[in-house]
Amino acid sequence: MSVVEIDDTERMKRAVTSLREFIRDKRELNRLLMGQFESNDSELRMCIAQAVTDWNMSPPLIPPITLKTHPNKYLLLQCAAIQALTSAGIWHSREHMPGSDGGTSGDDHAKSSEYSGWIERLEQRYERQKSDLKTAINIALAYNQMGVMSEYGTWQTAYGEWW
Questions:
Q1: Domain count, the chain
Q2: 102, part of any domain
Q3: What's the pLDDT score for residue 155?
Q4: Is residue 2's pLDDT more than 70?
Q5: Alpha carbon of 22 to those of 79, 144, 148: distances in Å?
Q6: Residue among 114, 40, 130, 43 at smallest CA distance from 79
Q7: Residue 58 lies in a domain
């Protein structure tokens, strides 16, 4: 499979598409939001940037990465999803105002507890996998990259997108 080099703008666009697929933020699935995305592209770009920063600032401190050089795109998506769900959960908490009319009640923002449950599950798994991978990379760096391939190796595609 030949790989065509893409620029950073296209890489981020593909990462946003992959993140949107990962969190299933699709117009056709967002009936309560009247067919709108829950998070716009700018918000998702910020979540991806936060995921890169999280990786770079978490111990062990190994050489910094970029969106292009992140060693595991799936972990990057997990962290970006945590950021996106946290942002959406905060919004739903802020907008929570139940109402009723004629014996019928409704609240399209009563989702914050579901969001926090997903965030907690994703965050536990992400932090463990990130720590394991960063430790493995740190050890490999100490041995001058002399090591063996493992299940924590590079994974370049995410949801059919190469980025």
A1: 1
A2: no
A3: 46
A4: no
A5: 11, 35, 30
A6: 130
A7: yes
pLDDT at residue 101 tops 70? no
Q: Which amino acid is at 31?
A: R
110 band by pLDDT with thresholds 50, 70 and 90: low
Residue 51 sits at the vertex; the CA angle it makes with 129 and 141, to the nearest 5 degrees, is 55
Question: Could you tell me which of 124, 155, 153 has the C-alpha nearest to residue 136?
Answer: 153
What range does the domain containing 20 cover?
A: 8-93+111-145+157-162
Cα dist from 84 to 3, 61, 131, whole Å: 29, 25, 21
Q: Which amino acid is at 75?
A: L
Confidence of residue 45 (pLDDT cuts 50, 70, 90): very high
Identify whether 52 is part of a domain.
yes
8 Å CB contact between 80 and 4: no
Structural domain contains residue 78: yes
Cis status of the peptide bond prior to 60, with omega within 30 of 0: yes
Query: d(Cα 124, Cα 103) in Å, to the nearest integer?
Result: 41
